[in-house]
Amino acid sequence: MDSQRFIDMLLFAIPSLITGLIAYYFFKEHTKNEDGRRRFLLKKELQVSALPTRLQAYERLTLFLERMSPSKLLIRISPNNLNKEDYEALLIQTIEIELEHNLTQQIYVSEKCWNIILAAKNATIQLIRKASLSEKTTSADKLREVILTEMMERRSPSEAALSLIKDEIADIF
C-alpha cells in the first residue's frame, strides 16, 4: 500500500510539475519580450532626440568640406606676400584649424564617414603641397593658379566626402 500511495502522489505531482514548467517558460518568454520591447522603445526615443544633433554634425562637416575645397579656400584666403612657402603653410594651417573646430562631430557620424572626411582633408593638403613643389610655381599667386588649374582637371577631394555625407543622410530618412 505504501508503494501505491507513492505512485498516487507521483501521478498528482507530475501534472503540477508540468504546469509549473510551462508557466515558468511562458513567464520567462514574457519577461524577455517585455524587456526587448522596453529596450526598443528606449532606443527609439533616444534616436528621436539624437537625430537633430546628428543632422547638425552632418551640416557642420559639410560646411567644413566646402570651406576646405581648394577653389573656395583660395578665394577666401589670399596670400600675405609673394612667398609660396608662406602661402602653402597658411592654407594648410587654415585647413587644420577648421578640422580642429569640428573634431567633436566625429562621435555623431559613422566611422566610415569620418575616415572619408580625414582622407579628403589629407588629399587636399597633399594637393597643395604637390602644387607648391611644382616647377611652375614660383610665387604665391602662381601657387593659386596651379591649384585652380588642377581643380579644373579633376574632382575635388571634398566632393567625394560630400557624396558620402549625402548618402548617409539619405539612409537616415
Quick rundown:
This protein is an all-alpha fold. Helices cover 84% and strands 0% of the residues. Helix 4 crosses helix 5 (140-153) and helix 4 (111-133) packs antiparallel against helix 6.
Explain this structure.
The structure is a single chain. The protein has 173 residues and is mostly helical. It has helices spanning 2-68, 70-76, 84-101, 111-133, 140-153, 157-172. The radius of gyration is 32 Å and the shape is rod-shaped. The N and C termini lie far apart (75 Å).
- Low-confidence stretches are none
Given the structure, what is the number of helices? Answer: 6
User: What is the N-to-C succession of helices and strands?
Assistant: HHHHHH
Straight-line distance between termini: 75 Å
| Secondary structure category | mainly alpha
The helical percent reads over 70%
> Beta-sheet strand percentage?
under 5%
Largest sheet: none
Q: How big is the Rg?
A: 32 Å
DSSP E strands, number: 0
What is the averaged pLDDT score?
90
Assembly classification:
single chain
- Tell the overall outline: rod-shaped
